[in-house]
Amino acid sequence: MPRTNPQTATAKVASIVLFALSITLAHSAQAQTYTVLYNFTGGSDGATPKTGLSMDGAGNLYGTTYTGGNTGNDCVINFLTDTGCGTVFKVAHSGSGWTFSSLYKFTGQSDGDPPSSRVVFGRDGALYGTATYGGDASCDPGYDGCGLVYRLSPQPTFCRSVLCPWLQTPVFTFHNYATQGQFPSGDLIFDAQGNLYGTTIFGGSNSCGGDGCGTVFELTPSGGGWTENLLYAFSYPTPYPDTGVIFDRSGRLYGTTSSLTGQPGSVFQLTNSGSGWIGNSLYVFSGTQNGYDVQAGLVFDQQGYLIGATQYGGPTNFGTIFQLNPLPNGSWNFNTIYDLQQAAGGPEANLTMDSAGNLYGTANVDGSHTFGSVFKLTLTNQGWVYTDLHDFNRSDGQNPISSVLIDANGNLYGTASAGGSHGNGVVWEITP
Fold it and tell me: Which are the contacts of 347, defined by CB distance < 8 A and separation ≥ 6?
């Protein structure tokens, strides 16, 4: 047997080490990079960003803050602390960085407060969103109104000021909680004809302690204004929808009801019969085994299955990711596809699915630093694999309760409701 030259053997070992090192470095170079795009100060720029973000065609980001902005007003939710009525903001590309601008500061008057949903773009290029309270004070004097849906658009003429606030116009103000709903909550959605759909957590004709059990509504452009059509009023044992609705390809609506007042939550379907909308409860959560406290809405996967999340429950009681599959007989099969192992509270916002079928979300209290995390779920032959993309450490954000936005390059964007350099929340980006 030929002998091996020690120098040759050493060279081979070195080559192997260098090759392995190069693979390791390449893998590290592909690691996720977390960046804070903006730290909220808690002043006129806003504070406590709770909702997700929207992006325009130029890659600029738009979002809302729950507090901050105008202070010294009687903001319904913050009148004891006087911390402001909330804002709508923009974070725009500027060279290699980002520039923040405040688009609108709520006053707590007829414009409502605080902004309670992600702003979405209409076909007219304007932003649309909801304010939970305010509006018509006669509807519910205790909250200065039952809330409203608003439209936000740039100034119609050239603005010479450096800071040019956008114009806020109420699209629809809820005047009667029994016939129109009360306290809109959750993201809005447009259909192909430009009609708006959303949910109110209370209101409607069915009594739930005198406040109504919640509604699904439609707003239709009509004669320069908007007309509401109350599609469905909820009742026990599945009341309080507060996450908005989504469409399937047949025009049916889907959403979740929350665990408010001790109810475990449910998944519902609404079907237009031609003479009205018929409600169907697809699944009612029962507690710790299959999850409970449904704070997040739904998303369709590539097979047409519904996917959602519970904040608590499951074997670990840290929350679950679930799937509902339609069956040929018209019923739906429930399946828990992942039990969260680390979280002390699962997702409170809708999950996001990319073109490859991966799921992304945030957990309010999760990760090695217990200040929240951003995670990814990847479907493999062995099931769903969890990847922790970022653990917040308070200085870079804390308690994320927003959905995740994905751009065309695979970059992720969202908000954290607290933490950052001023303790009032951040806008963040994760790049692959």
Answer: 295, 296, 309, 311, 319, 321, 361, 362, 363
